[in-house]
Every structure is written in C-alpha cells, then in structure tokens.
Amino acid sequence: MSVTSASPSHDRPHWLALDRLGVLITLILLSSFLLPFALFRANRILLGDGLPLLASMQPVAASVLLLALAFGVGAALLRLPALIKLAAGFGVLTILFIAMGLSAETLMPADNNYARVSPAAGFWVLVFGLALLVTDALTRLRLGPWTRIGILLGVCGAFWALLWSGLWNELSILKEYANRAPAFWNEARTHLLLAFGSVAIAAIVGIPLGILCYRVRPVRAALLNILNIVQTIPSIALFGLLIAPLAWVAANVPGAKASGISGIGVAPAVVALFAYSLLPIVSNTVVGLLGVSAPAVDAARGMGMTWLQRLVQVELPLAFPVILTGIRIVLVQNIGLTTIAALIGGGGFGVFVFQGIGQTAMDLVLLGAVPTVVLAFAAAVVLDAFVELTSRGGRRA
User: Fold this and answer.
1) How far apart are alpha carbons 94 and 39 in whole angstroms?
2) Where are the beta strands (DSSP E) in 42-137?
3) Residue 299 and residue 280: Cα distance in Å, rounded?
4) What is the end-to-end Cα distance of the chain in Å, rounded?
5) 40 three-class SS
6) What b/e readout covers 21-52, taking b as 16+ CB neighbours within 10 angstroms?
7) Residue 38: enclosing H or E segment and its boundaries?
8) In whole angstroms, what separates CA 376 from the centre of its chain?
9) Rounded CA gap, 370 and 363, in Å?
10) Residue 68: which of 56, 50, 83, 53 has the closest Cα?
11) For residue 358, how many other CB atoms are within 10 A of its CB?
12) I need a surface site. Which of 97, 119, 189, 258 has the fewest CB within 10 A?
C-alpha cells in the first residue's frame, strides 16, 4: 500500500496564491514611494519642490493612507475574488484623492495667493496602479452594459461630491479653474460642439456612403483609398491646409462669411474633424453590411422584400452594432483631436493646454487635458455599453 503525501501547495488556500497581474500592480504601487507625492511651488510657473508622502500631510492622514495602500497591495497581490479587488481599488482611490486634498491644505501657507500645490509623479503613479486594479477586476467580473454605465455614473457622482466639498480647493488646478470658470465652461461647450457635431455630420454622410460602397464594388475601392489618404495626413497639417481654401471661400462666395465660414476658427476645425471621421464610419458600415448572414438576406428575399426593404428592415439593423463601433472609435478620436483645433482658433479645451504650454504653467495644461481624457473615457464606456446592447438585440432578432 502506497502512502501519498499532500503537497504544501495543495494545503494552501487558493486565495493565498499570487496574482500575476497583481504582482505588476504591486510593483507600480511600491515604485510610487520613490517619487514625490506633492509638489510645492512659490508661484504658478516655478518648477517647485517635490515632497514625499510622509512630508506632504499630517501624520494621521499619512498613516491612514499608508494602511489603505497596504490593503490595496494585498488585494492586488493575492488571488481574491474580483468583487473584493474592485471594492479595494475604488476604496483606496477614494482615500487617495481625499489625502491629496488634505495634503494641499497642509502645505499651503496662510494668506498666500501665489503659492501652488499640485499632485506630483508619485500621486499619478498610485492613481495609475489602482486604476489598473479596478480595470482588471471589472474585466474579470464581466458586468453587463447597464451595470457599467451605473458604475460610471457613480464614479462621476463621487468625484463631483469631492469637488463640491471644497476639499480640493487648495490644489493648483482648482485655483486655475477658479480664475477661468466662465471661460472654462464656454470652451467646454465649444469642445462638445466640435467633437459631437463633427461625428454627427460624418454619420449622416458616412453611412449612406458606406451603403453605396456596399452596393457598388468599384466605388468601394476608390472611395476607401481616398479616405485612407486623408487619414494619413497629420492633424496639424490638415488644419493648416484648410486655412487658405476656406479663407478664399469666405472672401469670394456670397453669404459664406456671414454663415461663419472663415480661414480660422470653428469652420476649418469642423471640416478637418469631419474628414478624419469618414473612414471609420464608412468602412465599418461596409464591414457590417458584408457581415450580415446570407440566410437572413435570402429569407427576406423569399418573403418578397425589395432591396430597399431588405436594407432598411434586415441588413442595417443587423449591421448596426458594427456601425456603432465605428462611431465610437470616431467620437473618442475626435474628442482628443478637437484639442488641436485651438491652434487655429477653433476653441475647446486645447485653449488651456496651449496657454499653459506657453506660460510654462502645467496646472493650466491639466485644466484642459484632464477634462478631455475624462470625456473620452466616459464616451468610450457609454458607447461600448450601447454596442453590447444592440448586439444582444441583433442576436435575439
């Protein structure tokens, strides 16, 4: 009779095993302690002095943050259930953002309107590591589309509550906002108008062009090649190339200038963003229509439907998730590209980015860059959810 001894690895609980991605996240979190947590500057344009975490806030706040980070490291490192990892990631992120506000209140001298306190590299590395932990947990949970949208709304609500509480008022980026609040919301409206307006126009034009390419093969090759060439032109170059022809149109075409067309400003920005948007929408429309199953088309033909009825009632509904994916790609792309439109007077968040670069004021750069990133991320999450919902509807049909 042979006696089999149990190996120590079999006696160890599953959750005590190391998570491979968690090891990477742990290294990222630990590396943040080699970098400054907060940056103190005598005024908004000086480089300033980086301060480590323990020197950036009161001992009690620093101790709470360190304990929270230790819990976050443990949640990342071990093979815990994804729901625990998600709760740990969000919880530690909340404490981290609160600690950053407390750090600014601690470091700001009394009655000093010139000094500035900003998050330093260590803070951003911690945010990146914890965001990676949250993203990994969300991927493992495979949450439904409405749940993902609900989490996004919850995160936006929590961040709004943080700003409303005034805890971040001493941070430099909020001071930049306080000095430019009316201009910020005006440029926000312009940014949304340029990004969403150009995508809407591209969808109105691009989907019919995609249908034309689907129906007429020779047109497909020629049009897609032209749109590919447009896509290869650098964005700054395309904005610049449109200045001269649009200025000529404004000067020589009656009523063009009165309708807002000019060499600089919103008009060339919309035209350039529209041109960049066409290829993904047209190509995804073609791919979606080509991907419609032949039995579905044959069944519609057998029912006596005309080609237009088949297109509207069968092919386009089944191809819609792929078309919406193209619109998602374009929207996220245009939210970022709209930033460059500020170089030709188009407005948007890019105004603050380029003003900050010119003044060497990095917090002014962040005032334009952070809303752009947040807006692009939110648009991607929402449209991803809609793509999944339409895909489910198509499969049921």
Assistant:
1) 20
2) 49-51, 116-119
3) 30
4) 62
5) strand
6) ebeebbebbeebeebbbbbbbeebeeebebbe
7) strand 38-41
8) 3
9) 10
10) 53
11) 10
12) 258
Q: Contact 332/379 with Cβ under 8 angstroms?
A: yes
pTM: 0.85
Determine the Cα–Cα distance for residues 252 and 264; give it in Å rounded to an integer: 16
Non-local (6+) Cβ contacts of 48 within 8 A are 39, 40, 41, 42, 116, 118
CA–CA separation, 349 and 191 (whole Å): 6
Q: Are 56 and 117 in contact (CB under 8 A)?
A: no
The residues, ordered by sequence, that sit 6+ positions from 181 with a Cβ below 8 Å of its Cβ are: none
How far apart are the C-alpha atoms of 174 and 136, rounded to whole Å? 30
Residue type, 133: L
Long-range contacts, 135-141 (Cβ 8 Å, 24+):
136/21, 136/25, 136/82, 136/85, 137/82, 137/83, 137/85, 137/86, 137/89, 138/86, 140/82, 140/85, 141/82, 141/83, 141/86
Cα(280)–Cα(325) distance, rounded to whole angstroms? 9
Tokens of 54: 């323990």
Tokens of 34: 């080699």
What is the pLDDT tens value at each position of the chain, 397 positions in all?
444 444 444 555 655 677 788 899 999 999 999 999 999 988 877 777 889 998 888 999 999 999 999 999 999 998 889 999 999 999 999 999 999 999 999 988 877 778 888 899 999 999 999 999 999 999 999 888 899 999 999 999 999 999 899 899 889 999 889 888 999 999 999 999 999 999 999 999 999 999 999 888 888 888 989 888 888 888 778 877 878 788 877 777 777 677 677 777 788 888 889 988 999 999 999 999 988 888 888 887 888 788 888 888 888 888 899 999 999 999 999 999 999 888 888 889 999 999 988 888 888 899 999 999 999 999 999 999 999 888 765 555 5
- Domains and their CATH numbers in the chain: 11-170 (no CATH), 181-396 (1.10.3720.10)
Longest CA span, the chain? 102
- Look-up: residue for tokens 């980070």? 69
Q: For tokens 């590919």, what's the residue? A: 228
